[in-house]
Design goal:
This protein is mostly helical and 361 residues long. 64% of the residues lie in helices and 4% in strands. The chain contains 16 helices and four strands. It has a four-stranded mixed sheet with strand order 2-1-3-4, with helices on one face. The chain is globular and about 65 Å long. The N and C termini lie far apart (63 Å).
Length: 361
């Protein structure tokens, strides 16, 4: 930038500075301008894929506006969201004129778009040994049928060991499944421009839930998960052998850095813990590296901020939804007061329930 002489008039000096700033703005790379555009994430707190994206955003230290799209209230089926995401699935990332709806594509977009020196990389450079290792475990973990594990364990708690899901959830989700088909059908009739999207979603839901309510299928995929956990345990053992010195920094899944593969593994283990499957896959002397890894993940500041303790999952899911229902349906001040009182009581009992769970675990 050219220097400004001290004997120039103030207004001339200001004009010169404004002109130079304007030229600098014109010369600014498009990639930099793109990074400065606002990130907006539409998600549901307890959606597995949403949790992965939110953790990656936190790990990269990116500023992002987040909007809850409540699945229990079927907000993901509302026309405004179906226009944003034709599949009606969360999460959805909006960045400038870009709308990305598929979680893997969102994670890749974040990594490719935000690459300055101040932003941590979660995927190593293409061609490096670490790159292939990260991509291998990322693809392995992302191929797991997490929806089937989640719905299956809620519908059939007998296949779990120590579930953190209350008994009423089974009845609740069965009722929601029963009403979903008619809800989507009505939405298709009321919104003809979105009819194809609603019908397609209805078909996907039928196919998915047929499998998720099949105990034989669930036992099969949970047995197959044993093999994946064995592979992860072996890889973590390799990392432990690479840093045998006591007091040395412990490595993560693919190396000393926390990678996109760790994002997938951390959220996967947290979901398995919530579903009551952790004792099956680690702990009590089995897969000790996996157990140690999960304990380290729980201590990671970004993880605590985004996901927190496993017992917070239901509280963070139920309370916002309950208050939103109260706001929508309360007929009067008295009705609102009664509803808030009920919510307060529910919160009190929920607190003591989870307190007992914490003491037990």
């Amino acid at each position: 930038m050219a220097t400004v002489s001290s004997n120039e008039a103030p207004d001339e000096r200001e004009m010169l500075l404004e002109k130079e700033e304007g030229l600098e703005a014109l010369a600014e790379p498009e990639s930099t301008k793109k990074k400065e555009c606002k990130l907006v994430l539409y998600h549901w707190t307890q959606s597995f894929n949403s949790q992965k994206v939110r953790l990656a955003i936190a790990e990269k230290g990116l500023k992002c506006e987040e909007y809850d799209v409540s699945l229990p209230l079927s907000e993901h089926n509302e026309p405004w969201f179906m226009r944003l995401s034709p599949t009606g699935e969360v999460p959805v990332l909006v960045h400038d004129d870009q709308i990305i709806c598929e979680p893997t594509q969102i994670l890749d977009y974040l990594e490719q778009t935000f690459q300055d020196e101040k932003t941590p990389r979660l995927i190593p450079e293409v061609g490096s040994t670490y790159y292939h290792r990260v991509q291998h475990y990322r693809e392995l973990l992302d191929s797991l049928p997490m929806d089937a594990y989640t719905h299956g364990c809620i519908l059939h708690p007998e296949i779990t060991v120590d579930s953190h899901i209350p008994a009423y959830a089974t009845t609740r989700i069965r009722a929601q499944i029963g009403s979903m088909e008619s809800e989507l059908k009505k939405l298709a009739e009321d919104n003809p421009e979105l009819k194809d999207a609603y019908i397609a979603k209805q078909r996907r839901l039928k196919t998915k839930l047929f499998d998720h309510d099949n105990v034989k299928f669930l036992k099969k995929i949970l047995d197959e998960l044993e093999n994946v956990m064995d592979q992860v345990e072996t890889e973590l053992q390799r990392r432990a052998e690479e840093t045998p010195e006591e007091g040395s920094q412990q490595a993560w899944l693919c190396g000393e850095f926390f990678s996109m593969a760790d994002v997938s593994l951390a959220v996967t283990l947290h979901r398995l813990k919530f579903l009551g499957l952790s004792r099956r896959y680690w702990g009590n002397g089995a897969r000790v590296n996996l157990e140690t890894y999960y304990e380290r993940v729980l201590d990671r500041p970004t993880f605590r901020r985004v996901l927190g303790h496993v017992n917070n999952i239901l509280i963070s899911a139920v309370l916002p939804t309950a208050f939103r229902v109260a706001k929508k349906r309360a007929p009067s001040f008295i009705g609102m007061t009664v509803l808030i009182g009920m919510l307060g009581g529910a919160t009190y009992f929920a607190f003591h329930y989870f307190k007992r769970r914490l003491l037990v675990s």
